[in-house]
């Protein structure tokens, strides 16, 4: 009798623990001690996002940097290889890129209610800051592992055996480098939306936000791994391979470096409601959509409206709209800011850091356990829209 009572107490204790840590969404009252806790946590989250995710901590390092990434996924420029005065302008533009991104994040927070008609989501900011810290730290420590570094070094040695077929230099080389980088990103991003393994075990995190803004966008875990690995990880393995086919000496590109840095500063805060609103207001900003993935173009990629769901999504490019236009996945941003999030109305937006991080993995394990082995290949590597015969009980 006592054992049965202890078992019942243990089950009740576990149920309460699960409810507190897993089932319960983060929510604070706007009065009393909970309001104070919300303010303190929001300030801490804002500091973490601006300093860590938006690279505020990198401002000082940029002043003394020996190299600068000019364009997303393009090899960093060694500053000693260009004229000293030009290098100073490049550093200034790189600092501007960081500061502009931070200011856009703050502007989203301040003007969110005026633009969107609803209050800024402070709980989402706290949730996002915690999740981003976990993802970015995991990526960093993963590639500090000696075994992982050795694998990457081995891959680099293999790439070095690839013959260089075309020698380019100057502005042409820089332009080709940008096109190759964006081409590889386009397909890796599109595969993340097409293939269940990449979607369910990573990229879905980046789309799990109903109240999207520059401060409430969770980093893509796979892209984080890619960034830390210097372009040598995940499905962008194609990037160093294609780049090796060309000898891309873009040191002589001159002021094109500064122009690209400024354009990159504009396109980088791509989840901003303020910049989307600015595009709607000023026609000159909309003209850039013909060549660039502007903030409004990428925000439309996060839209949960079926009209924007061309091929399990749309607007997959990182910086250039060329590949989306060429492969038929470009969607012109609407004149209003669309609702962001997942397409399924019953989706779980996981306003709980623990559930946010682990729910996709638990969901896929549940699918594997509940279905016969012959269905496992489709569960793992089938289309993102595939539903197994015995679906998981929890929604996306």
From TrEMBL:
One of its GO terms (biological process) is lipid biosynthetic process. PANTHER family: STEROL DESATURASE. Keywords: Membrane, Transmembrane, Transmembrane helix. GO terms for molecular function: iron ion binding; oxidoreductase activity. The chain crosses the membrane at residues 32-52, 86-112, 124-144, 164-187. Residues 175-329 form the Fatty acid hydroxylase domain. Its main location: membrane. InterPro entries: Fatty_acid_hydroxylase (IPR006694), Sterol_Desaturase_Related (IPR050307). This is Fatty acid hydroxylase domain-containing protein. GO terms for cellular component: membrane. It comes from the Bacteria. It is found in: Membrane. Pfam families: FA_hydroxylase (PF04116).
């Amino acid at each position: 009798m006592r054992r049965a009572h202890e078992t019942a107490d243990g089950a009740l204790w576990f149920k309460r623990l699960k409810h507190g840590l897993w089932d319960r969404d983060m929510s604070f009252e706007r009065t009393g001690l909970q309001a104070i806790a919300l303010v303190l946590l929001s300030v801490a989250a804002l500091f973490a996002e601006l300093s860590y995710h938006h690279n505020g901590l990198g401002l000082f390092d940029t002043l003394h940097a020996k190299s600068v990434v000019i364009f997303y996924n393009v090899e960093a420029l060694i500053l000693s290889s260009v004229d000293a005065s030009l290098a100073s302008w490049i550093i200034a533009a790189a600092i501007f890129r960081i500061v502009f991104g931070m200011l856009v994040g703050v502007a989203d927070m301040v003007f969110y209610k005026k633009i969107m008609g609803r209050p800024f989501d402070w709980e989402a900011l706290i949730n996002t800051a915690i999740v981003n810290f976990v993802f970015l730290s995991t990526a960093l420590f993963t590639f500090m592992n000696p075994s992982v570094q050795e694998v990457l070094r081995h891959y680099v040695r293999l790439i070095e055996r690839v013959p260089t077929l075309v020698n380019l230099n100057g502005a042409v080389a820089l332009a080709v480098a940008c096109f190759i980088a964006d081409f590889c990103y386009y397909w890796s991003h599109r595969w993340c939306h097409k293939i269940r393994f990449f979607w369910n075990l990573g990229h879905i995190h980046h789309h799990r936000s109903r109240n999207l803004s520059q401060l409430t966008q969770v980093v893509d875990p796979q892209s984080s791994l890619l960034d830390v690995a210097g372009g040598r990880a995940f499905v962008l393995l194609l990037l160093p391979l294609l780049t090796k086919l060309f000898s891309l000496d873009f040191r002589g590109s001159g002021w094109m470096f500064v122009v690209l840095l400024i354009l990159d500063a504009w396109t980088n805060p791509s989840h901003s409601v303020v910049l989307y609103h600015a595009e709607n207001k000023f026609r000159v900003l909309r003209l850039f959509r013909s060549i660039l993935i502007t903030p409004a173009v990428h925000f439309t990629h996060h839209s949960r409206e079926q009209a924007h769901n061309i091929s399990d999504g749309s607007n997959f490019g990182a910086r250039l709209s060329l590949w989306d236009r060429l492969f038929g996945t470009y969607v012109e941003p609407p004149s209003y800011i669309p609702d962001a999030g997942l397409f399924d109305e019953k989706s779980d937006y996981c306003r709980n850091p623990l559930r946010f991080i682990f729910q996709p993995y638990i969901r896929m394990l549940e699918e594997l356990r509940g279905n016969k082995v012959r269905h496992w290949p489709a569960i793992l590597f089938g289309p993102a829209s595939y539903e197994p015969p015995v679906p998981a009980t929890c929604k996306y």
